[in-house]
Amino acid sequence: MTDDTDDAAAGWFAGLEAVDTEAASRAIREATAVEPAEWPRIAVETGFVGSEAEYYDLLHEVTIHSTRQEARAREQADDKQLLHAVRAMDDVTRTANELAERLSEWAGTLFDDAETGIKGARALAEREPSTPVEARVISLAERVDGLTAEADDLQAFIERQAPEIAPNLSEMAGAVLAARLIALAGGLEQLAKKPSGTVQVLGAEDALFAHLAGRGGSPKHGIIYTHEHVSGTRPEDRGSASRAFAGKLSIAARIDHYSGELKPEIHDELDERMSTIRARAEADSNEEPNQ
Amino acid sequence: MTDLPDGVDRRSFDGKQRLATRGQPVYGEPTDGEWRLWDAGRSKLGAMFETGMEIPDESVDSVLYLGAASGTTVSHVADFAGPTYAVEFAPRPVRDLIAVAEDRPNLFPLLKDARKPTTYGHIVERDIDLLVQDVATRGQARVAVDNAVFLADDGLLCLAVKARSEDVTANPEAVFEQVRSELADAYKIVDSQRLEPFHDDHLGIIARKR
């Protein structure tokens, strides 16, 4: 960008050999030009290619190669961003709650009508301080309010991003749970490579290791408990429900990682399986109406 | 019936006259011989043609397409045009776009941000005949103005404006008015129409570079 005449003259093929696809791909990705030019004509005139037809053939090959490489790299990076976002959302929420507790203890000594929790912090933040100590309390309340807003923004970001990165997983589990599963596994690829039994207990590592050490039963579910499919099923059927759910979730993660296409069939299959499991409870309550 | 660019035609599908182009099918669309249906409900450019906007019937050679997404519409454009540069910023749909481009030697997929034309100024040639823009980002008029640098004098712009991308809360007509006035920096508007019933809260704009 130091010399305008250079910029004007430099197409993606400047200084390249026509056979060097890797270098050309790099130039497609990284170079810039302030103004376009008649690149096909220039490529022929400078002897880079023999004809414009040859130029377009080469451009086709190089753009496909370069764009495929970059898309793959960017997608792999995107699931890591999601992982950070969901962890940040949890940290921000936890911190906001802790500070809100401290705040309600402190505010209770100053204001008779101080409410507790995040809602209390929001109300406090609206007040006008009349003493230096009130100024500190109200300022702290503003921070809590700000953190809560940040948590909401992070959640909105996750809800926007997760379906882009993992369409099937997000469709099945909801964006936030999808992001949590990706975060717990350490990435979409890692999640795709886990057996469904592991997906089933992701987030219940403490219980799992206690069980493996001989203390306690095996955990039936980890973080997937937060989903209706599991928590909304009666306790005696939760094992089946979480097994079925985790099974389809791992298939969803694999499709998302290896193909990325939204596949409606697997969602229908899961819905069918869940209604079969739910039907057991109904059948039981019909048989034994007094229980 | 209004004019259509060379290579785009109306053919009969299930007894109805629908848009079609000639090329390899890409998403399971119905075909009639070598013609394949161009579904206006899935394509804003298709909807602009279908709603009877004033499309000049000149033949189109080079095209710059901003916001190509997974390549549904740009596949039809590449069927009737010459060199077609397809810019898309989200990596996920670009995977599909590449698959569409593989069968079309005149289609060049680029993973670039349409808000930063200098990042593809070294690839896209100048004096482009047609600029198509369908980007769901804030500042859609700005993007069209900044990319006018690629257009030939008198080159054509087909712009689909999504009101909700500018401001979810604003009245769409207010957003469209704002876009029209910002466009005037670089373009002279030939026609503009809402794309209902095919696409809600979208405005189609046909304009020529000043």
Protein described:
The complex is a heterodimer of chains A (291) and B (210). Chain A has 291 residues and is mainly alpha-helical. In chain A, helix 6 crosses helix 8. The N terminus of chain A is likely disordered. With 210 residues, chain B is of the alpha/beta class. Helix content of chain B is 24%, strand content 31%. A 7-stranded mixed sheet of chain B has the order 7-6-5-8-9-11-10, sandwiched between helices. Chain B is globular, with a radius of gyration of 16 Å.
Search tags:
heterodimer; A: 291 residues; mainly alpha; Serum Albumin, Chain A, Domain 1; 0% strand; disordered N terminus; B: 210 residues; alpha/beta; Rossmann fold; 7-stranded mixed sheet; 4-stranded antiparallel sheet; 6 helices; 11 strands; globular
Tally the beta strands of chain A.
Answer: 0
Average pLDDT of chain A, to the nearest integer?
90
Mean pLDDT reading of chain B: 92
CATH second-level architecture of chain B: 3-Layer(aba) Sandwich
CATH topology of the domain at 166-285 in chain A: Serum Albumin, Chain A, Domain 1
Radius of gyration of chain B: 16 Å
- Radius of gyration of chain A, rounded? 28 Å
The biggest chain-chain interface is: A-B, 34 and 28 residues
What oligomeric state do these chains adopt? Answer: heterodimer
Kindly estimate the percentage of residues of chain B that lie in beta strands according to DSSP: 25-35%
Low-confidence stretches of chain A: 1-8
Topology of chain A as a string of helices (H) and strands (E): HHHHHHHHHHHHHH
CATH superfamily of the domain at 166-285 in chain A: Nop domain
Count of distinct strands of chain B: 11
Helix content of chain B: 10-25%
Shape of chain A: flat
Number of helices of chain A: 14
Share of helix of chain A, binned: over 70%
